[in-house]
Amino acid sequence: GLRLLARYPLEAELAPGFQVDAEGFGVSRVVEDVVADFLANPDSSLMAPWQVLGLRQIGPEELTEALVAAVQQGVSPEAVAKFPLEEQLEWLARELKEKLGQLAQTIAPLAQEKRLKKAGELWELASTWASHTGATEEFLQQVVAELEAKGVLPKLNDWGRGKFAQTEVSVLAENALAVQMLSLWLVGLWKAARLSEPQTLRAFLLLGESFLAEIYRRLREAGLVTYQDLLTGSVRLLSEHPHIARRERTRIKQLLVDEFQDTDRWQGRLVSLLALADEDPRPGLFLVGDPKQSIYGWRSADLAVYDGFKEKVKKAGGEVCPLVVNFRSVPVILDEVERAVRPVMQEEPGMQPAFQELAPFRSRPEDTGFMEGKHRPVEYWVCWEFDGGVANRKTRMADSRELEANALAHHIFELHELYGVSYSHMAVLLRAFSDADVYLEAMRQHGIPYATTHDPTYFQRREVLDAFCLLQAVADPEDELALVGFLRSAWAGIPDAAWWELKKRGFFPLVRELYGVDGERLSQLQRMLAEVAQGLSALMPGKDRIRGWEQAALWALLCLGVLRQSFHQDPADVFV
User: Fold this and answer.
1) Residue 506 falls in which region: left (phi positive, over 0), alpha (psi -120 to 50) or beta
2) Cross-strand partners of 359
3) pLDDT over 80 (residue 132)
4) Who has the most CB within 10 Å: 16, 84, 191, 335?
5) Quick one: which of 563, 572, 567 has its CA closest to 511?
6) Per-residue pLDDT for 301 more than 70?
7) What residues are paired with 397 via a beta bridge?
8) In 82-226, which ranges are continuous DSSP H helix?
9) Neighbour tally for 42: CB within 10 Å
10) Cα dihedral sign, 274-278-281-284
11) Nearest-5° Cα angle at 508, 502 to 511
12) Taking 80 as the threshold, does the pLDDT of residue 194 lie above it?
């Protein structure tokens, strides 16, 4: 996108030499200026929507934040003006009624169980709402208010996570999965309804159209574009200038797109304009994607785009080839994946793909996976505390994590010691590294050597902190904390007892100005260090162990000055 717009800036209606606002500071500054100008000299035609927002305690800060987000996502004033708010609200109400009706029908047997009070209340509410005939806005407000007031939202959340009481499971039987999916839908729709306060949205749309027009005008004047502009601008350029699209298609022999499941609608349109045009020449197109790995929904990636593009490729004469051979796992593991996942992975177009059975790379009778003693290729562990043989299912998360870490370390140690499995043939996969230190500590206690892609304790190590302080003291002479960290380290060794005396003598301003081999300042520092060292010698316990610290400190200060000069004058490799 950047190359396209830089090649044709005038056709794209951009200033030649435009800049990408990579950090977003430029957009934030322009938006803040536009809002400030409005507050200083308000437009009378916009005062009514502004007052609506004020009554809902939405002020300049919230408006600025919303406008910055809109610009970063490429929302245009024209799109705001055409936004079909009423249609969207009606669609939301219809979806809610439909899903509530389905839920009421599915959980009706639960309402007969007196012990399941919340399930009964939810059934009653869902039945009432499903037959609601009032106005759309009234209905949405009622659903939002009553779900919170009646306290049934936690029950929906639990069901959406697959958390059912034992009685609920026995009553629902095979309908439990349907209840789970409906609950997920309803929680999402409830969140959307909660955010869809109609009067507030109408006010935002009226203000947004006017403000965004002025914001984009000022951004164009400043020659600033966002990352989203690179996409939307490229699509607009190729759509509005067919001769440019033809020229660009001839430049490309083969177009390869990896991780296509994370494509948003603008990226999909860009690829389509370049490779799926109805005229030749056009480049060859090769896409690789796995819809089960679509994880960038928060960044506007859309699985519906993936599904729709796949159909376009077929219509254009392309071929869809499923890749189903698994090179990593033995058959017994793939069998377990299928057993556990297939029943719950129901296809929903644009939302979730169907389960795809995987074939092992090789399948021989001896490929049974690891089976030694009590160990099996697939094991499920629970990490609960046990009291007299009874599991405490309410074990605290932190305690459960420690139990798991220690059991895991013991397991690895046993595999190595009893069965001769090399440590290099074992791997531990974690969902996140936030608690990795618990697992690494358990490894250390069991004497297990390990290598990790990320160690949370790395930046707490003494030698790493010392190196960081040195680099920070070089790059920023004003950072006194980094300077003290460096000069307290083993490189210099200034004792804590010396700092107050050094500060009183003007140590910090002198070091702040140190640059290169500064003989005059180094001589002053040498005298100062010697005075302080002599004054401390009679008072400080353990002084013999650090004799000569003032000489080491002087050497470290000499290095600091040389490094500061190198940082500003030399190429990076010389400085390093």
Assistant:
1) left
2) 325
3) yes
4) 335
5) 563
6) no
7) none
8) 85-106, 108-111, 117-130, 136-149, 153-160, 166-172, 176-195, 198-222
9) 11
10) positive
11) 110
12) yes
